[in-house]
Amino acid sequence: MAGTTRKKAGAAKAPASGKARKDVAEAASPRGRAAAKAKAADDAAKPDLGQVRAQIDGIDQQIQSLIKQRAHWAHQVGKAKGKLAAAVDYYRPEREAQVLRKVVDRNDGPLADDVLVRLFREIMSACLAQQEPLKIGFLGPEGTHSQQAVYKHFGHSIHGLPLSSIEEVFQEVEAGHADFGVVPVENSTQGTIQSTLDMFLTSNLRICGEVELRVHQHLLSRSGRVEDIERVYSHPQSFAQCKAWLRQYLPAAEKIAVISNADAARRARNADDAAAIAGISAATVYGLKSIAGPIEDRPDNTTRFLVLGRELFPPSGNDRTSLLVFIKDQPGALFHVLAPFAKHGLSMNRIESRPGHTGRWQYAFFIDITGHAQEPAMRLALDEVAEFAQEVKVLGSYPVAIA
């Protein structure tokens, strides 16, 4: 027993292995002592998870209380305005734009501007819906980019009306069945949506807002396998936005144009050999799988939408005015129409010509100008334009798109 004890004791005093000696040496070195000190400090600074969660719960409670207060005062605004006819009478786009610009101005991180704008938009949407949800018409069916634009501009506390065509969106707003409508007007890759511009030639509706939406296209199908695809459905604009990808990966597939990307998704869900080009939200709505995406040729692919209403709204402080100008058939007519804007320091953002429907070879010009129609410089410019134009129609003055 004694021998055994001495042997164990001896084993305990045996020299450490080479690796163990190296570890001991490194720990005793200045660098090792500094690392150990840093680890200890890090462990000491590490917050207690329970305390952190308690802080978050407390902040959540404060946020909910403040939202409740905001909803109360939003309701008081409704009372201050008196008994109005409908929800649309309580909605003021210029006021919402001013609120959201302040959100952006105050933001110093860590959340991005567009994230905070989206949060505040939803709060305002919910507060306004206390009176009555707005009815918003858009190019349907559900799952279109137009529906995404509706939610981006109005929030989710609205009643969406998916309609079958851009013309029907105009008609439903004109008839009062929808409070506002949202229609696409131009794409950064493929240019103007001509059917939207043509509607303004005969419509009395006003433009009271704009939405800029980054558009990401996905190839969707029931099976989720690209090798199954023999035909692809989509809107002509989406085909044009994805033509390079389609040429590389589906050169032999039949391309079938339909009225909207959501309609394409609805058709694609019926067969394994069919696919649709649409937004990823359409996959959720119609039970499809994403084969690939984003597949648009340009990563900055953006569509601009217009918000249609029945009246003009006051200035918000950063506005755009859209004009429809019919020019007289005379030398220098277009120059005389544009010169007053430069003279009064107003910037032209866009000009587009379309057949005027007033006679053969007669044209109308759609012009976007920075500023509001009620501002003095714009009023002076419009008065001078009227001297040379056959007709000048203010389609709308509205807040420039935010985030």
TrEMBL record:
Named in its record, the pathway it takes part in is: Amino-acid biosynthesis; L-phenylalanine biosynthesis; phenylpyruvate from prephenate: step 1/1; Metabolic intermediate biosynthesis; prephenate biosynthesis; prephenate from chorismate: step 1/1
Quote the InterPro entries the UniProt record gives.
ACT-like_dom_sf, ACT_dom, Chor_mutase/pphenate_deHydtase, Chorismate_II_sf, CM_dom_sf, CM_II_prokaryot, G/b/e-P-prot_chorismate_mutase, Preph_deHydtase
Q: Which GO terms describe its cellular component?
A: cytoplasm
Q: Which Pfam families match?
A: ACT, CM_2, PDT
Q: Where in the cell is it found?
A: Cytoplasm
Disordered: annotated segments = 1-46
What PANTHER family has UniProt attached to this entry?
A: PREPHENATE DEHYDRATASE P PROTEIN (PTHR21022), PREPHENATE DEHYDRATASE-RELATED (PTHR21022:SF19)
Protein name (record): Bifunctional chorismate mutase/prephenate dehydratase
The protein's organism comes out as: Agrilutibacter solisilvae
Q: What gene, per UniProt, encodes this protein?
A: pheA
